[in-house]
Design a protein that fits this description.
Distance between the termini: 17 Å
Number of strands: 0
Largest sheet: none
Oligomer: single chain
Strand content: under 5%
Shape: globular
Order of helices and strands: HHHH
Length: about 55
């Protein structure tokens, strides 16, 4: 999914989301939860704590 679409889903500017993706800024908990919903996976998978989606 393009960064622009994900940023829109999270209701933020693409440049802010890009900083989260690149590790320049720490992503807030609410955004991790919304990403898990968007991608139909767990927060552990998004955070790299498991390889099982």
């Amino acid at each position: 999914m393009p960064q622009r679409q994900v940023a829109e889903y999270l209701n933020m500017h693409r440049s802010v989301y890009c900083r989260y993706e690149s590790g320049e800024r720490e992503i807030p908990t609410w955004a991790v939860l919304k990403l898990a919903e968007l991608y139909h996976t767990t927060t552990d998978y998004i955070l790299g704590r498991t390889d099982t989606p």
